[in-house]
Amino acid sequence: MTPLVLLDLDGTLIDSSEGILGSLRAGFTAAGLRVPPPDVLRTFIGPPIHDSMRRAGVPEPLVETVVTGYRTEFAARGMYEAALYDGVREALGGLRSAGLRLAVATAKPEVFAVPICAHLGLTPLLEGIVGAPLEEGTTKGDIIRRAAADHPGAALMVGDREHDVEGAIENGLASIGVRWGFAGPGELEAAGATRIVESPGALVATVLELLGPVEPERPTA
């Protein structure tokens, strides 16, 4: 079976910081809380949002209020305030040309991830888009596991944060950490990324180095 490469969305394929940060500010304001400084807000990009709220010290009774305010603003405006990183479309095309299958595995709720991928023209390049449910409790490892079950042949996870790497390890997959996203200094190394790349232009060669030659699928009779 042709190998499948799983790809994170925020911080890996798209720079979604403008829409996410603006929506977070709206959520904190709606709950009557002081808006955290930008460096704290940026840590919300990537991990499950409820986990980020608690790490930022949001009082438990207000977590859902902030999340609801965030999602209301994000659905109205923020989800479309995103752009592909330079070189990402070319990298995905190169992976496809090498014979690889691609799917998104993101902690972003699937109800947002699917229209965002369509809006940015990613959907035709992907075999599937697997995201989180709106309810809390789903880890990146859970999402990777479901993506691998829905799309057999998963061999590798590409992402920008530690939870991408940890989820890959949990599922027995190799991982590539990308430097252009939202990881802090040393985060990807500490998590145990198999490889780390500095730019989208280096992604194709690194994927092929890890997976080896891709055998074309033979048509069945």
UniProtKB/TrEMBL annotation:
A matching Pfam family: HAD_2
GO MF entry, a single one: protein tyrosine kinase activity
TM region(s), chain numbering: none
UniProt xrefs under Gene3D superfamilies: HAD superfamily/HAD-like (3.40.50.1000), Putative phosphatase, domain 2 (1.10.150.240)
A Gene Ontology cellular-component term: cytosol
InterPro entries in the record: HAD-like_hydrolase_sf, HAD-like_sf, HAD_2, HAD_sf, PGP-like_dom2
Protein name: 5'-nucleotidase
Organism of this sequence: Cellulomonas composti
